[in-house]
Amino acid sequence: MSTEDREVILSIKHVDVTFETGHKKKLRAVKDANFDIYRGETFALVGESGSGKTTLGRAIMRINPCSAGEILFEGKRISGKISREEDKNVVRNIQMIFQDPAASLNERATIEYCISEGLYNFHLYKDEADRIAKVDRALESVGLLPEHKSRYPHEFSGGQRQRVGIARAMIMDPKLIVADEPISALDVSIRAQVLNLMNRLKAERNLTYLFIAHDLSVVRFIADRIAVIHLGEIVEIAESETLFKYPMHPYTVSLLSTVPMPDPLVEKSRKHIVYDPSQLDQSGEEREMRELRPGHFVFCTSSEYAKYEEKMSRMERELG
Amino acid sequence: MDENRNIVISAKDVEVKFRVRDKFLTAIRNVSLDLYEGETFAIVGESGSGKSVFTKTFTGMLESNGTISNGSIMFHGKDLTKLKTDKDWEGIRGAKISTIFQDPMTSLNPLRTIGYQITEVIEKHQKISKEEAKKQAIEMMYRVGIPDAANRFDEYPFQYSGGMRQRIVIAIALSCHPEILICDEPTTALDVTIQAQIIALIRDLQKELGFTTLYIPHDLGVVANVADRVGVMYGGQIIEYGTVEEIFFDPRHPYTWALLSSLPQLGVKGEDLFFITGTPPSLYNKIDGDAFAPRNEHALKIDFVQEPPFFKVSDTHYAKTWLLDPRAPKLEKPEVIQNLHEKIVAMTDKGGAFHVD
After folding, report:
1. CA distance B82 to chain A (A)
2. B135-148 pLDDT, tens per residue?
3. Chain B partners of A217 at a C-beta cutoff of 8 Å?
4. Which one in A77, A100, A101, A134 has a CA-CA gap of 20 to 30 Å to A190?
5. Tell me, what's the pLDDT at B146?
């Protein structure tokens, strides 16, 4: 995809999310996040716990308010005060898939209810028969059977529950899905199933994903573009292949070096690079997002930029 | 590998049953395992395969509805399956065999200081004075990488980060110099960068103190990093075991193939990842034949009828699959895990997806 013919679906504009942590103390969980997500892509937000990745996801869902900046969905502002009508529109079009399917489903409700809940809230069905048909279709689209409707969440395995979580998001026919660590709680083999399912649904429905994860190995497989976030700051954004091939920010490099590889000979001799912020430019110059190559942004000062430029040119020569 | 290694602990034909309402669930079905002194043995398998339950029999920590219905676990001439009360276990659990669990927040007492929780264990097992115990505890805290240990001695768990808490759990587990350390998903709840540190810490301490480690990692990449030998569990049985190189580069059981094939590290963008169809067997019912057969695309007819024995692949490598029977058709492992080493080398080499400069 070239940059020009891509349509921006979600625009994060200089967003801050701040929490009050006691009397007059504030924690800036997300600092000046600024990027666009294009329609039809899978955009991954990768970082460790505490990096602010979930907070940013929740800001998009209007769960956490932005303390600065704004978020635009299809060109319309959805952060801050918006009308009831627009709020409904956001809820319908942006759905979320959670990490722990056991905790995110109502354990006292049947699967039919869990999946229908959005339909009920928005009266998105003509009559009972229509609602049931919609539920059946949603179940089918995630590889579950209509007879599963009357069961309760605890009767399903972890992988099946996650499918229910996906089905209840899909039934709203959303345009954007914020998937917060959707496979972290699942077994290896089930992970593969859920990832395949997400990829298939995306292709079928021209969905856009914001995929929040801590695991770079998974993200490489699923994401078109990746943003790496560290302590609330987005430090690098690039297309997936580029980020893996030419990681520039030392934090990205360190994160990449800790991905465990399934090979004892390689893994036992691999060096884990520890991120050392003291190696960054300490001159006090404000860092900003600078575009190193088209679409490849690094958060840096001007002297760091020169260093990355040099590294990039060297790597490009070496790797061709 | 050294032929005359000492066996530290030897489990033989262990069977574990749980009573659930009025039914019996057989969680472990005749598992035998010898652990050698100083080695790291990793058990892998899906959740529900019985890896945690099996390791819990080593410390008598089964849930109250579970019993070891058959087999023996010999440790220093004692059969651990015969121990019943907490008193019987004194001097073994926590002293000679320690466990580190997944979530450091739930294994520490939030209302007690870190220092108290370490010294408690030392005092209990070593019968030494309070001052001496405190000295040892601070020494242990330094060893597991707590900077400024003396000053952090009186802090509470909430004042520590997740990684630091897990270091404390390790300090407690090692404070009595155990012979066996059981690590039940010690890094699952931690970030990848912290995970790398904790793994390195356990490895360094093992070199220094010489204990044997029984590891249940959640990620096959971690297995590759930590393990000397690997056992693969499925449906309450170990179905293949061997050195870590044998399991990754020359796996023989179709289930091991399937596990390796579904790794996202091996995924090709735009193509589906391999996945195992179906669900693990219900352990309430008697399992006929090979437990993996219903999900195995390579299953032979006999797999549904008769349970395969262990076939020998090498002196250290055994697999429980009829595919190794001389009469079985010759089958290649799936394409995605052929030449695994070459593939991973290409990924981590210059220009590869996981290369770092």
Report:
1. 34
2. 999 999 988 888 88
3. 221, 263-265, 354
4. A134
5. 87
